[in-house]
């Protein structure tokens, strides 16, 4: 066997494509069983393939967030009601409200259908959140930013730096709050805020200057050896690309626009932008250390995500009763839906085990 | 290889550097020294190109790299030849893990993948950090971070390495490690090193040449032995040599020990005077746990009234946790703390301030106003008590100065005055000696001794053994959350040689300070 299946970190883009595929499938259905199976697939894959790095532990947070979403959804329907017809579960008294909030009722009879609807809908949102969480704990978000095309490298680095500033800011806020309690000073509310903000901001500014100096002395932003003509070509390609994408997207969404401006224009725009990125990337005098390889396990994981999304769409079109079950019967699951969940699991199983870091 | 010609640098009208000439040759370690605030960092910045780009000001003169002028070249275009490691290495890290950080500079240079891989492996071995390769940079200790920072520059194979106070934040052992690494690079790879440092005791033996900034913008360049004869900043060993009238001056402990053979017989060792002090702070079974790391494990500690206690130990040994737990606002998992019979954790912030004062590691965290006068007025409610205190600690700080523009020593004094204005009976200081030169440390130790004489009990966390010898009565050494030794300075220092000041290393215990030796020499 070649080295592709030895323990290593999978390309982050593969994980994100897979997770977004699951998200797409979740948006195409309100069937609670299908949704729960998708969550189950995501959880299984995370427990099998996450690394022991800090971000690997974040999945539990997202599951918690999903639960909170479902609960809030249910509580909202109980409190504000607004559903009529169906089986009454509990006949709560309606709280009379003044006229100026017409259309809003408090409490009132509680219908089983309303609760089911809220549950299904909440579950769908929760599934989407949990799938994004799965991607987050499987692939370091910073590595994802680093996989941008070479031409966008500078922006990628800036984003990575910006992401790491947040925990530092929290850290310095905690430190300054503790330090300010050590001295007497203004207790007035506005001035107390200033007492806290000034040192934190000064600290943040000093840190950014130090980081900028450090990056500069290590060669960040060294000028390549491109000619003005090359720079002009790249610039023109990028502008055409941007314009094409804007016009094309508008025409696709606005059905009254001439059709020639729609898909052909969009394709032209995307093509020009891609050419611009390639042309810009070619003259970047920079290399990448141990780039994440894209091998067949990556392809398998990404493909399974795309397939799951496509099947979800197919079910919503051709098996409407499965995708959006009635509220007065137990939802059914079809063979295609089962196949979809199996696919969501099988793709990632082809991936290699993660590289473990002894901390 | 690198040549500075007639470098003049000024903000507005007062020159920081005035007509500086300096050459660094291949495979040479040049030490830049002088009191704080004379422009050591500025001089290094001129070499790396960060000055005046990141500092403002006007620069005249020329910088030559192998005969080519680079004074108008941006730092990023000098990166392949000149590597720079700043004062706080953690602030300059761009990536997350050790391996990526080592590769970052090479990626910018556009080196081929095989070369990068090879150099990363070589550098990991060279600096002895191979087992850290996948670690998160933020979880490393100070010494490890410093070595990674040096490594991340070395992978670019620069010809000159510029370091700004690489050991100032490190404990004695980590500092030795970093210096040993540097000498190895100079000897084995023929790398040139330009190093700024005002704590000379460890660096001087390794330096080939020294560049001494005098404060009027001029520099003296020469052999360390010659320059130190009348330098304003000298390590204790040179002070000892001056007191004993040795010529040439000894630069290493080994030299001095050979000279001191007859000195030991001429002198009567100082007599230990221990006076029993009332216990001001009692700590019993103190535990502090952060997440899954145990910062302190059943620590018992007594601070005497009117005594200065030094708290020492490796970076991350739990010193800050102990100090904040004693102050009362820090996390405490278990155990008992009593300061004059009261647990500070039970008091409100104001009550705490009146009982236990704390100067945090970063004194600037305390400051938030535009002038020194405003800060003082905010702290004492306009009674003028704080300003009086500040004038007694460090006289002559102008009222209208911005606290950020003060020197390290002056800023520390201001923070100290802000804390002391509530008249605490216990004073805690977290690494106050960082960034202080010999003169400022001398002033600080005078202040602490004065407070102790007034009956205040002082606990000061520090890495600086020379400062401990000067200022402290007792020492507590922490390691991995435990107290490993505690007692009077002379006894603890005799027990653990790695915490011994230079005078003890030369003359043996119970000698601690140069002034003790000098007093005896004057008497005889």
Automatic annotation (TrEMBL), chain A:
Its main location: membrane. The keyword Lyase does not apply. It is a multi-pass membrane protein. It comes from the Bacteria. The keyword Transmembrane applies. Keywords: Membrane, Transmembrane, Transmembrane helix. The chain crosses the membrane at residues 15-48, 60-80, 100-118, 236-253, 259-278, 299-317, 329-350. CDD domains: EcfT. It is found in: Membrane. This is Energy-coupling factor transporter transmembrane protein EcfT. It comes from Nocardioides mangrovi.
From TrEMBL, chain B:
Residues 2-240, 281-505 form the ABC transporter domain. It holds the Pfam family ABC_tran. CDD domains: ABC_cobalt_CbiO_domain1 (cd03225). One of its GO terms (molecular function) is ATP binding. Gene3D superfamilies: P-loop containing nucleotide triphosphate hydrolases (3.40.50.300). Coiled coil: none annotated. Keywords: ATP-binding, Nucleotide-binding, Transport. SUPFAM superfamilies: P-loop containing nucleoside triphosphate hydrolases (SSF52540). Residues 197-491 form the Plant heme peroxidase family profile domain. Belongs to the ABC transporter superfamily. This is ATP-binding cassette domain-containing protein. It comes from Nocardioides mangrovi.
